[in-house]
Specification:
There is one protein chain. By secondary structure, the chain is of the alpha+beta class. Helices cover 35% and strands 29% of the residues. The protein has four helices and six strands. Strands 3, 4, 5 and 6 form a four-stranded mixed sheet that branches. Helix 1 packs across helix 3. The termini are far apart.
Length: 136
């Protein structure tokens, strides 16, 4: 659930509000930069949007924003062979650092959900034919 932060920061020139969608994009880009992340997992609706040509930088990210803090859920697909706890920790660190440095919000939690593992360069290797298969 996303909540628009009311009067995030008041200045003498007016108020500054950061939409949750902006924080989702920051978190998505920060998570995708971590080595071992194959892709973001946005579910069925996100996959259809990408299939139709829309690039969704917030794919796989859900954010809850309060007055001064944010909570983030990130769903990812990991490359096979990577240590999942290390990749997840890297995602948490990158997302927290990016959001805090760009928005000034305090990130209270970054929950990482691993939805799949993919093989890097997972092209199907054709097996050589045996003489019995050629005779058919």
């Amino acid at each position: 659930m996303s909540i628009l932060a009311e009067d995030y920061e008041k200045t003498e020139m007016g108020t500054i509000q950061i939409a949750p969608e902006v924080i989702e994009i920051i978190a998505g880009m920060a998570a995708a930069e971590v080595p071992g992340v194959a892709s973001m997992s946005g579910g069925f609706a996100g996959d259809i949007a990408e299939f139709l040509g829309r690039k969704n930088m917030a794919k796989g990210v859900k954010v809850e924003v309060g007055q001064r803090e944010a909570s983030v859920d990130v769903s990812v697909v990991i490359e096979f062979g990577m240590r999942i706890p290390e990749v997840a920790s890297g995602i948490q660190h990158n997302v927290k650092q990016a959001i805090e440095s760009m928005t000034g919000l305090n990130v209270v939690q970054v929950n990482v959900h691993i939805h799949d593992v993919v093989f890097k360069g997972a092209d199907k290797v054709e097996e050589p034919e045996t003489p019995a298969q050629r005779v058919k």
